[in-house]
Amino acid sequence: MSKLSALALVFCQWCSNSFFGHGVRNSVWLFPSIEFIHLLGLGVLGGTILIINLRLLGIRFWNDQVSDLARELQPWMISSLAVMLVSGFFLFSSEAEKLYGNWAFRAKMTSLALAIAFTFTFYRKVTLSEEKQISPVWNKVAALISLALWAGVGLAGRAIGYV
Ligand code: HEM
């Protein structure tokens, strides 16, 4: 077992045995309530990402500048992402040792790390720059990569319960 895998296993065992891991696992209503919040956050996050990408692809919202739309939706995107990370952590803690070996969970965390890194680097540059500074081709490339990465997170998240 690699050092990183051993470290990840120790972290999963710590989360599972923590008071909040026990608390969510042993409560009838906590897991479904947190998952409800997880899905609400998913709706807002998915909505903001879809609106900006439909504009980048030139499919909708033509009257709005990309940068105006991105700035207006940024607080919603960042706060809903924070809700996903916190609610996701508590869901994870209730079944961390089980999720350690779950390939769908690993695929989700990998896609999530890539999606967050991409969103706050290249994507941010494309969406917050004045339109004339970015060629329409890069707008479309950024939108397609963003949609693929976030769809990967959502699909892998849905698959967790089936693996
Ligand atoms: C923006 C980021 C995220 C998205 C888009 C996302 C998406 C999803 C989706 C679509 C589901 C399935 C819900 C269902 O089947 O009812 C789900 C469930 C779940 N997510 Fe997330 N999630 C995110 C972040 C996280 C994080 C950061 C973690 C853990 C650290 C996490 C852990 C979980 C767990 C444990 C489940 C429940 C799986 C099950 O037992 O059915 N999620 N997520």
Task: Characterise this structure.
This protein is an all-alpha fold and 163 residues long. The chain has one domain. It is 80% helix and 0% strand. Helix 2 crosses helix 4, helix 3 packs antiparallel against helix 4 and helix 7 packs across helix 8. The two termini are 22 Å apart. The model has no long low-confidence stretch (mean pLDDT 94). Protoporphyrin IX containing FE binds next to helix 3, helix 4 and helix 8.
TL;DR of this structure?
By secondary structure, the protein is mainly alpha-helical.
**Cα-atom radius of gyration:** 18 Å
Number of domains: 1
The average pLDDT is 94
- Percentage of residues in strands: under 5%
Structural class: mainly alpha
Counted beta strands: 0
Distance between the termini: 22 Å
Low-confidence stretches: none
Q: What does the oligomeric state look like here? A: single chain
Shape: elongated
Q: Please write the string of helix (H) and strand (E) elements.
A: HHHHHHHH
Report helical residue fraction: over 70%
Largest β-sheet summary? none
Query: Please, how many helices?
Result: 8
What compounds sit in this structure?
A: protoporphyrin IX containing FE
